[in-house]
User: Fold this.
Amino acid sequence: MTFTGGSWHFGYSVSREELADEAPYLSIHSPHGADLDMVKIFSFNRRARDGKHLPISAFSVSEEDNMPISFDLTGKTAIVTGANTGLGQAISVALAQAGADVALVGRSSMAETEAAVSAAGGRSLSIQADLSTLEPVDRVISETVAWTGRADILVNNAGIIRRADAIDFTEADWDAVMDVNLKTVFFLSQAFARRLITEGKAGKIVNIASLLSFQGGIRIPSYTASKSGLAGLTRLLACEWAGKGINVNAIAPGYFSTNNTEALRNDPDRNAAILSRIPAGHWGQPEELGGAAVFLASPASDYIHGIVLPVDGGWLAR
Assistant:
């Protein structure tokens, strides 16, 4: 990759004055793609750490696909739980497209996700694990590390739901949901973070929360409790681990078109009621969640800790 139209090169420190004067005439030539206008890659409002200069490497792009390096996950290894279908599958594919190797974790076959990751040009490893217990927690981490030698990103996506009026809800259903949605998330995050902290490495944890992290809902008491708890856990872990180089954040998906919402979408009245509340006017497609996951897993989010990011078509803004 070469820079023309100015005096800049890798390792050169760019003053703000040079940035304003030369960038409009600067382009990047990549052997893998079309020339890129520097102005389109970064904002002149970006602050230098010393208030005066920025390294030219801060504005470089990936030569593989013209992806800004701040979003590039090449060389990273991600673990995605509940990766066999739906949102977990879409997140796995998005991370692979960004360059990550992806360990796919779940109870059932990951063949479909494996094929999708491969079609996206990525590599995957399937790990069969029942996350309703803590038994597989250490194994998920160790098998991932045995595969690539590292584990940089953890996406806690696996979750279950049980429906009944609060007055009739059983202890068994309460415990089943809390075990998968909150207990295992905590201990898997703990195992992941312990390894990073011991080795002095940075990492990213992305929890998949819910609109029920913000709202009450009906007939899903343990699910609402688990997702509200997950939002709180995200903030707590961010407070404890941010100083150790580990970012902990969450995504709160809105109404997405997945197997879990098929019954709602097939009910004309419920479907119409939901769509009338979504400013975007349509159900989310699983791939529309991928960008948020890549962002929170990438260097672009290095100074973001403890947020719960809604990806909901505007539902919560209503």
